[in-house]
Amino acid sequence: MTNSQTSKKQDLPPTAWAVLGLLSFPGERTGYELKKWADSSLRFFYWSPAISQIYAELRRLEELGYAASVRSGPEEVRAKRRYAITGAGREALAGWACDTAEAGPPVLKHGLLLRVWLGHLAEPERLRAMVGEHLERTTEELAAVREAMEHAAAEPDWAFPTLALRWSERQHLAELELTRALLADLEGLADPAPGGPAPGSGPERQGDGGAPTPG
Question: Fewer CB in 10 Å around end: N or C, the chain?
Answer without folding.
Answer: C
